[in-house]
Every structure is written in C-alpha cells, then in structure tokens.
Design brief:
This protein has 246 residues and is mainly α. It is built from 11 helices and 2 strands; from the N terminus they run αββαααααααααα. A two-stranded antiparallel sheet has the order 1-2. α1 runs parallel beside α4, α5 runs antiparallel to α6 and α8 packs antiparallel against α9. The chain starts with 16 loop residues before the first helix and ends with a helix.
Length: 246
C-alpha cells in the first residue's frame, strides 16, 4: 500500500452524471498518502470499481466538492505557452510518474513495481533539478496551466526536502496572485512542514496506516481547508477509502 499523500488524484470523468460532473471539475485535485500522489484525470476511467465505489459512497459530497473545485485553475481553450517544449517534457515526466504508481497499486505493492517506481522517480528528479536550476519553478506563461500542474506533481514526489522548500518559497507570491492554486500551495506547505518535523496546517498528510499525521488546531481544520478550496476531511477520507477499497 502506498504512502498516499491524500490530495485527490486527477481522475477522468466516470460513469454516472453526479460523479462525472464532480470529477470533471476536479482536474487539479489529487489523492496522496505519504509521498505518493495520483492526479485525478485517469483513475476513474481506468478503474470501474473505483468509479462504482465513488458513486456509492461519496455522492453526498458532490455539491461540496463542486463548490470547492471552482477555485481550481483550469486550462483555457487555446491557452498558449512560451516554452511548449518544456511543457511537453514535464507532461511526459508526469505521465511516467502516474503510470508507475498505477502499476505499483495494481500489483499490490509488488517489490519489482516499487523498484520500477523508484527508478522512475530518480530519473524524474534529476531532470526536475535541471529544469528548476535553469528556470526556477516555471510560470504559467512559460508552460500553461497544465504544465504548472505537472511541475507541481513532480515536486510533490521529489525525494529532496530542500528542493521542495525552495519551490514553496517561489510559489508563495504566485499563490497570492492566483498563479498557483490555493490547494496546491496548501498541500506543498503541509509536505514541507512535516519534513521539518512540524504539525501540518491543512490535514493533507496521512501515514501508511491512513492515520492523519500531526496537525495543528484540529477544531478549526475544516475552516482552514475550506479557505484554501479543499474539501472537508469527511469528503476527503470518503474518496480515499473508495480509492483504496476501505
């Protein structure tokens, strides 16, 4: 079982009007445990059981998730990128990132699949370090909204605490100007805080046993999540349980 960093992974639309509409609006959301995330556009289309469980167990959260997901940045039709080659490179890296995680989950944490994932992550990290050294964290003007999301996902999976801290500092002013989504900023903030041994703020970090890692001021957690465009912990856990058949 992965260390799922609960962020609501990227899912493609699934069968059923309620869930398909909900997921269509969640193209930037993610499911993560520990250090592994899945972006929500692939999961439902590739996993009928997950689609069914999501419909059965989480339909009551449709309105809440739809409301919070409106705050996510979406790629615009005809959106141009000044650095299309870089955007393509990041897309290819993100696709590999998700493919090896899909295989690892499908094979129930098989050691060979884990080794494959670790090799892919190491290769992606080397490329990501070079990209960040040359460009800093790429802007939306450089690579488009989808490219920014791909770059963010790769940073989330980077086995490099200092790299993540550096990117978080770069994203702070962009979060204020909505260049980066509040959700993505919140998730990376929690990741960095936990690496530093500090309580997280937004409740995005769970351990391998699906237990919430130390979090400050639990009484107001959902208020902070709502302010950052994140679904309630109840909705979040529902999707996680559907994803992992719990």
């Amino acid at each position: 079982m992965s260390t799922l960093w609960i962020i609501l992974a990227t899912l493609d639309p699934v069968g059923g009007e309620i869930i398909s509409n909900m997921i269509r609006m969640m193209t930037s959301a993610a499911i993560c445990v520990g250090i592994y995330c899945w972006t929500l556009p692939v999961r439902a289309a590739d996993d009928p059981d997950f689609s069914r469980l999501l419909q059965e167990k989480c339909a009551k959260y449709e309105d809440e998730i739809a409301a919070t997901s409106k705050r996510l940045p979406h790629s615009q039709v005809g959106e141009k990128a000044d650095r299309p080659a870089l955007a393509r490179q990041l897309r290819e890296m993100a696709v590999i990132d998700q493919q090896v995680r899909d295989r690892w989950i499908a094979l129930q944490g098989d050691p060979a699949a884990l080794a494959e994932m670790q090799r892919a992550d190491a290769a992606n990290l080397a490329k990501l370090r070079h990209i960040l050294h040359q460009n800093g964290f790429p802007t939306r003007a450089m690579i488009g909204s989808s490219g920014v999301q791909d770059a963010w996902l790769l940073v989330q999976h980077a086995n490099d605490d200092k790299l993540q801290e550096s990117v978080l500092a770069q994203l702070k002013p962009r979060f204020r100007t909505r260049e980066i989504s509040a959700q993505d900023y919140a998730l990376l903030t929690d990741r960095v805080l936990r690496h530093q041994g500090k309580p997280q703020i937004y409740g995005s970090q769970f351990n391998d046993s699906f237990e919430l890692e130390p979090t400050r001021d639990m009484a107001h957690l959902d208020d902070r999540r709502r302010a950052m465009g994140l679904p309630s912990m109840a909705a979040y856990k529902c999707m996680l349980k559907a994803f992992y058949r719990k």
